[in-house]
Design a protein that fits this description.
The structure is a single chain. With about 650 residues, the chain is an alpha/beta fold. Helix content is about 40%, strand content about 15%. It has three domains: about 25-60 and about 230-350, P-loop containing nucleotide triphosphate hydrolases (Rossmann fold, 3-Layer(aba) Sandwich), CATH 3.40.50.300; about 65-220, PCRA, domain 4, CATH 1.10.486.10; about 400-645, Lambda Exonuclease, Chain A (Alpha-Beta Complex), CATH 3.90.320. Strands 11, 12, 13, 14, 15 and 16 form a six-stranded mixed sheet that branches. A five-stranded parallel sheet has the order 4-5-3-6-10, with helices on one face. The protein has a three-stranded antiparallel sheet with strand order 7-8-9. The longest helix has 26 residues, at about 290-315. The radius of gyration is 29 Å and the shape is globular. GO terms for molecular function: 3'-5' DNA helicase activity; ATP binding; DNA binding; exonuclease activity.
């Protein structure tokens, strides 16, 4: 359909300039997926058809195999006891060993378990492989591994990755595969990310690996490398959730024939129904669901159905001119059944035609064509390194720490709180409400907060801003929310911007307003280097000087020390970087009805005490790193209750 729509030349979409119609461009089209699980299927089809495309965030980059391969190798270089990483690298194109070779490395002749890392130690004998090629490849890889280990402390991370790619020929191998240009683009993007990491001042292979693994595990939303050359005329692949608030001339909703995931396990939990089990009947030899399991499964299926209906509504309303529903003629899932029922109820069945087209056969490799980057790679191309910062290595034994403002604020409140939130990454769940379940009409408070921040980040404010700018922005960012929630959000925002300090923005020139101001502040001590990172919500300059505001879409907490500490760190970093004489700061609680603002004026005289406090906190944190949970100090129970800490049950009720 995409090739036909673009190549036909038919005027299928509206033209905002002429008011008429115009032909479709690739950039008019968005493919919306329920999840990114099968996005590579659509990438492959677009690639074979010659249609330019771009994966919009999602799992594309960090979920790609080439990033995982390099991450595994760096992990093993840093920590030789990471056996899983080592075996994964050996099976990858970085080493190229066969499955039989991996078995020989892990299992002895008598069936005893072996440590594969023992064969790379100095003076260790070569393992006995069945294939001569495996022996040669392992010996070569072992020699290279020794070189990389020796070089890791005198090379930057980006240089180390480039050396690995160059010596192993990994880039050439990946480029020779289908979609090879994308694989190579991802490798180059990783090198650039490493270079950016170094230039920010965050040194150390271990820190980079920790961050890279966290990104892979969290699916943070990093797009694959853009190989479209900056051309905006590309088909976009994204999830339906990512498309909220957007509109496209042509929308293709993919895989409407997929079915609802069923409750396949023998145990299930529902927040209201409780814990349900299936039991095994010895006589019949069958599993039978208990009453709680049945009622819980029925509730979960009903709730999932309602969520799928909302999701389908969001997807269909992203289309401005053309909506394409892609499914299957025989296998029909819940979305396709709903659509068929709607068509039948509307009496439009005679208007529907089903088209069946055989799957596109695999093209011979000679017809696919070598990606343009192959020639550049064979000619010795590598990313430009002229802009990479050359940072002198820290003296031996001097620790380096990189930490966010939010993490430091958690530690300032309670080291145990920091441990749960930023080490264990435990979910923030109120134990008193763990069994309450929101109704189908209730929207997630966290999602609302995220949307509010998007509104405040993108809406035109300041002198000359349209009168209805906030209302239009709320309508755009909350299309699938109830009218009441949108009304409450708009009312809260209008109230906040109607009084100080945000009211001052009405007269501020747009050029004097900065939003989501990111910063990294470095503190160097004799025995430590500390890098603090964060982002202030909004900073502006007016007749009263510089002002900084951090807003929270919440009511005022009983204990706001954490928020105020964040505010001081923002102020300290901004004033130090820009040599300000003073800075007016405030936290604005957007849902608070009465006392919604906490203000604070930060002066240069306040900086030394705050700096000393931060350094002392960092020293304490370094001492606690890698310690077990029981050694992280915690506050008194009374303080936990006053703060309404969501983790207090972990500390005091076990």
């Amino acid at each position: 359909y995409i090739k036909w729509a673009v190549s036909s030349g038919e005027a299928l979409v509206g033209d905002s300039k002429s008011g008429g119609a115009r032909p479709v461009k690739f950039g008019d089209i968005a493919i919306l997926l329920r999840t990114f699980t099968s996005h590579e299927v659509y990438e492959s089809a677009l690639r074979r058809s010659g249609a330019p495309y771009q994966v919009v965030k999602g799992r594309g980059f960090y979920d790609s195999q080439e990033i995982k391969d390099i991450s595994n190798l760096l992990s093993f270089l840093d920590y030789s006891a990471d056996t899983l990483a080592f075996v994964s690298v050996l099976r990858s194109p970085l080493a190229g060993l066969s499955d039989g070779a991996l078995l020989a490395l892990c299992v002895g002749a008598k069936g005893d378990r072996l440590d594969p890392a023992q064969f790379i130690r100095p003076g260790a004998p070569l393992p006995l492989f069945d294939l001569k090629e495996d022996t040669q490849r392992f010996e070569t890889f072992r020699d290279r591994l020794s070189q990389w280990r020796a070089a890791r402390d005198r090379m930057t991370i980006s240089e180390l990755i480039e050396t690995i790619i160059s010596q192993t020929g990994y880039g050439a191998v990946m480029t020779s595969r289908f979609n090879g240009e994308q694989y190579l683009g991802n490798i180059f993007k990783l090198i650039e990310l490493a270079r950016t990491f170094e230039m920010d001042g965050a040194r150390g292979l271990k820190n980079f690996i920790v961050r890279l693994k966290a990104m892979i595990a969290k699916e943070p939303g990093e797009a694959k490398a853009d190989i479209s050359g900056g051309d905006e005329d590309v088909v976009r692949i994204m999830t339906i959730h990512q498309s909220k608030g957007l509109e496209f001339p042509v929308v293709i909703i993919a895989d409407i024939a997929s079915s609802i995931k069923s409750q396949a396990g023998k145990i299930m939990f529902h927040p209201e129904e409780g814990l349900g089990l299936q039991h095994y009947d010895l006589v019949s030899g069958k599993w039978y669901a208990g009453p709680i399991f049945r009622s819980g499964a029925e509730r979960a299926k009903s709730e999932q159905t309602q969520e799928l209906k909302r999701l389908l509504y969001v997807a269909m309303t992203r289309a401005r001119d053309r909506l394409v529903l892609s499914g299957a003629a025989k296998r029909k899932g819940v979305w396709q059944n709903w659509i068929d029922e709607t068509i039948e109820e509307a009496g439009l069945s005679d208007k529907v035609a089903t088209f069946q087209k055989p799957a596109m056969p695999d093209m011979p490799s000679s017809r696919i064509g070598a990606p343009p980057l192959v020639d550049r790679l064979l000619k010795g191309y590598r990313p430009d390194t002229s802009s990479s910062g050359k940072l002198a290595p820290l003296p031996p034994g001097i620790p380096s720490m990189q930490i966010s403002v939010t993490s430091l604020a958690s530690f300032s409140l309670c080291p145990r709180l920091y441990y749960y939130r930023h080490v264990m990454e435990a979910p923030m769940i109120d134990h008193t409400k763990a069994f309450s379940f929101p109704s189908n009409d209730e929207q997630s408070r966290r999602e609302t907060g995220i949307r509010v921040h998007e509104v405040l980040e993108q809406t035109q404010i300041g002198e000359g801003a349209p009168k209805n700018a906030l209302k239009d922005a709320v309508d755009e960012k909350f299309p699938d929310f109830s009218r009441k929630i949108k009304s409450d959000v708009l009312k809260n925002l209008i109230t906040a911007f109607g009084k100080p300090p945000l009211s001052a923005l009405r007269l501020a020139p747009p050029g004097a307003i900065m939003r989501e101001v990111s910063f990294a502040h470095k503190i160097v001590e004799k025995q430590m280097e500390l890098i603090i990172q964060g982002a202030a919500d909004i900073v502006w300059l007016d007749g009263n000087g510089w002002s900084l505001v951090d807003y929270k879409y919440s009511t005022r907490p009983k204990d706001e020390r954490g928020y105020l500490f964040q505010l001081k760190l923002y102020a300290y970093a901004m004033m130090t970087a820009h040599k300000m004489e003073s800075l007016n700061t405030a936290v604005v609680y957007l849902r608070e009805k009465k006392d919604s603002v906490s203000t604070m004026r930060f002066l240069p005289i306040d900086a030394p005490d705050l700096r000393d406090r931060v350094v002392n906190m960092a020293r304490r944190l370094l001492k606690l790193e890698k310690k077990p949970e029981c050694e992280w100090p915690m506050r008194e129970r009374k303080s936990c209750d006053e703060y309404e800490c969501l983790f207090r049950s972990r500390c005091y009720e076990r």
